[in-house]
Design a protein that fits this description.
The protein is α/β, with parallel strands linked by helices and about 350 residues long. It has two domains: about 100 residues, no CATH class; about 200 residues, 3-Layer(aba) Sandwich (Rossmann fold), CATH 3.40.50.410. The chain contains twelve helices and eleven strands. The strands form three sheets. It has a six-stranded mixed β-sheet with strand order 5-4-3-6-7-10, with helices on both faces. It has a three-stranded antiparallel β-sheet with strand order 1-2-11. The longest helix is centred in the last third of the chain and has 23 residues. About 5% of the residues have low confidence.
Length: about 350
């Protein structure tokens, strides 16, 4: 736990003076009671449940402590139920995306389609961004922040190679962090773990049981690519991993289907779109394949999505909860004082 405004915590020692003042007032009342002429009246006043005298002030003191802590704005990792719907955008950033057979270029067309898709997407759906060429990277973890996603899309850097399968696996790792999916281990095999300075052991992956393809309705992968795999995990093997987890993969093929294209510098290169493999990815996972798809055609990706309720540990500000609890304590102190003593004591 940490506090956003920790300077208010310096006022906590001042609250320690309140119990001392309360004890002083009680002793002053007791001394005044000794002036009664009848000791019986004193005994009668002292009789009964003494704890009732102290409970309302104690509740009021707890309320003040809670309000002071709330003013400091505490933040903690809290496990909360979360209704989550997630779409992972996997976008090809290989050098062939410079070609202009899709106007103005394949890359610009993919960027504009992705940004338009984000603008039309319901605000409660989280979106993650994965880029892939010779390797795959998570450009943006799943988030509701559309501005951060747009900035990530505008910052694409093209590279050599096309690792289509790696991008699907990386999307699955983001969607199912509890499965322990390790792209490096799948690529290079199991290797001895190096000694780490972090004493916290790596959590063991949960037991995995395959489900029906397309049955996981609260997440989907949208794959935009213009070529064929040249490196990394086999594309269909990655698609099988997605199908076993029930995640649909919607594939958008960009560029030349059969023929040649030219780079902006005039060098002719062969970049035939591997449509058979991309169609099979969509079929295996229960998704759809479209050639040169647009954002409008992708609406059905989210229109039929549901939400999964899961327990997620998130950083949550507790100021509101503490303020509410403090208000309840203060009201309880006032009501008990009125009920037992007929006054706000």
């Amino acid at each position: 736990m940490y506090f956003l405004w920790p300077q208010y915590l310096w006022l906590l020692p001042a609250l320690a003076l309140l119990p001392a003042a309360y004890v002083w007032l009680l002793r002053r009342r007791n001394r005044a009671a000794l002036h009664y002429s009848s000791l019986g009246v004193v005994r009668a006043a002292a009789a009964g449940r003494q704890w009732r005298r102290h409970l309302p002030p104690a509740l009021l003191l707890l309320a003040l402590v809670g309000l002071l802590l709330a003013a400091a704005r505490p933040v903690a990792q809290v496990p909360l139920p979360w209704a989550r719907s997630t779409i992972m955008l996997a976008i090809d950033v290989s050098l062939s995306m410079r070609v202009s057979d899709v106007q103005p270029t394949r890359m610009v067309a993919a960027q504009e389609a992705a940004k338009l898709f984000l603008r039309e997407l319901p605000s409660h759906i989280e979106v993650g961004l994965v880029t892939f060429a010779g390797s795959s990277q998570v450009a943006q973890r799943p988030t509701l922040d559309r501005a951060a996603l747009t900035a990530g899309i505008d910052a694409f850097q093209m590279q050599v190679g096309t690792a289509v399968g790696d991008s699907i696996v990386l999307c699955l790792a983001e969607l199912f962090p509890e499965d322990g999916i390790d792209l490096g281990e799948l690529t290079f095999g199991s290797r001895p773990q190096a000694r780490s300075l972090d004493p916290k052991p790596r959590p063991a992956p949960r037991e995995f049981r395959p489900v029906a393809p397309g049955s996981f309705g609260s997440a989907a992968i949208i794959l935009l690519s213009d070529g064929r795999r040249t490196t990394g995990i086999d594309t269909l093997a990655a698609a099988r991993m997605a199908a076993d987890r029930g995640v649909r993969v919607y594939v958008v093929g960009l560029g030349t289907v059969d023929g040649e294209a030219a780079t902006p510098d005039g060098m002719a290169i062969y970049m035939k779109l591997d449509e058979p493999t991309l169609r099979e990815v969509a079929r295996m996972t229960g998704g759809e394949y479209q050639h040169a798809g647009t954002a409008e055609k992708l609406r059905n990706v989210y229109e039929n999505m549901g939400s999964r309720v899961q327990v997620l540990t998130r950083e949550t500000e507790l100021a509101g909860v503490l303020a509410l609890a403090s208000a309840v304590l203060a009201i309880a102190a006032a009501l008990l004082s009125l009920l037992w003593f007929g006054r706000m004591a």
